[in-house]
């Protein structure tokens, strides 16, 4: 099973949509709220992205909500989860 980390904030509608997609696919993930202390700086250093959500699958940055849905539409997302 893939390791999935999603950096979020509580009020972000894109974060909610991304988590709903992951939940619908029954993918377990670790959610990290970037509103706390220095977690946003860590997110930026790991992903290069400054906005939320930022999603890592098996340690590889995959982008945000739009990129996650694009991977799903292309059929590539399930392949990433299978690794």
Protein model, in words:
By secondary structure, the protein is of the alpha+beta class. 46% of the residues lie in helices and 20% in strands. It has helices spanning 13-24, 39-47, 65-74, 76-82, and strands at residues 4-8, 30-33, 54-57, 60-63. The protein has a 4-stranded mixed sheet. α1 (13-24) packs parallel to α3. The mean pLDDT is 95.
Rg over CA atoms, rounded to whole Å, is: 12 Å
Oligomer classification = single chain
H/I helix tally: 4
Superfamily (CATH H level) name: Glutaredoxin
Give start-end ranges of low-pLDDT stretches: none
Short description:
The protein has a single domain (4-82), classed as Glutaredoxin, CATH 3.40.30. The chain has 4 helices and 4 strands, in the order βαβαββαα. The chain has helices at 13-24, 39-47, 65-74, 76-82, and strands at 4-8, 30-33, 54-57, 60-63.
Offer a few descriptive terms.
globular; 20% strand; single chain; alpha+beta; 4-stranded mixed beta sheet; Glutaredoxin; 83 residues
What does the secondary structure layout of this molecule look like, with pairings?
Blueprint: E1 4-8, H1 13-24, E2 30-33, H2 39-47, E3 54-57, E4 60-63, H3 65-74, H4 76-82
Parallel strand pairs: 1-2
Antiparallel strand pairs: 1-3, 3-4
Helix pairs in contact: 1-3
């Amino acid at each position: 099973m893939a390791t999935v980390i999603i950096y979020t904030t509580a009020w972000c509608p894109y974060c909610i949509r991304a988590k709903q997609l992951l939940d619908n696919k029954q993918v377990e993930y670790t959610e990290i709220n970037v509103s706390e202390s220095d977690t946003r700086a860590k997110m930026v250093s790991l992903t290069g992205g400054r906005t939320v959500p930022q999603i890592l699958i098996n340690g590889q940055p995959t982008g945000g909500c739009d990129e996650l849905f694009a991977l799903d539409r292309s059929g590539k997302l399930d392949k990433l989860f299978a690794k």
